[in-house]
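User: I'm putting together notes for a lab meeting next week and I want to include a structural view of one of the chains we've been expressing. I don't have a solved structure, so I'd like a prediction I can at least talk through. The sequence is below, exactly as it appears in our construct file.
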Amino acid sequence: SLVSVTSSFSIFSQNSRIHQHVVSASDICPTKSLTQLGVATDPVEPIVANNSKVGSLPARVGKFQSDVYDKPIILIGCSGGSDELSRLANAVASSVSNGIEMDTHDAAMKGKSDIIVLDFKDSSMDEEKVAELANKYYSEDFLVVYINVKGAGGGNDQLEDIFIQNSDYELCIKDEDSADNVNWQFERLLGRAFLPLAVPGSDEPNINSAKLSMGLNTFFLSLSF
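Assistant: Thanks for the context. Below is the predicted structure for the 225-residue chain, given as structure tokens.
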């Protein structure tokens, strides 16, 4: 489902897996405050299972919700000539590590303000090995973001399919995109990923209600070809 399209950037979410848990809104993004991200910071009521205000709807908690997720962010893809993956990671993270040389046990010891980069720009690995490494992080529920640098990777469609299948979000970068705008879009993506899931049909106070995040006049257009 499309999360956001602004300017020349496209941010996609491929993740739909959720866990049953108590929702408690807290810090949304490790690199920006709620106010800086444009998220309302007024007190909100937690949504709990069988809350009388939402009938018998169970609490819906995303696996990356800020009070649930405690692992680092994984960037995956192929950089172009500007070393986009490492540049982005160094701009927003507390620490940056090379995921190709790290196992998932060591990676899990880091927190969500850290970033692990799997950049296959100069890798001699075949597609099978790349898929195995990418899936290692994705299958263990790390937040994996595919940084799709247009023109990078030699136009290898097989690699792109591997990255899409083993990531939760995709951020597209074009030649004309400035570093500041790329950083800003990435921080918005993380802010969205760390939000609690909205309760369908509810307009009760919630940091991720449709009324708050989209407004009353939002509509969706679905096209099939």
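A couple of points you could mention at the meeting. Residues 179-193 form the longest helix (15 residues). The chain has six helices and nine strands.

User: Perfect, that's what I needed.
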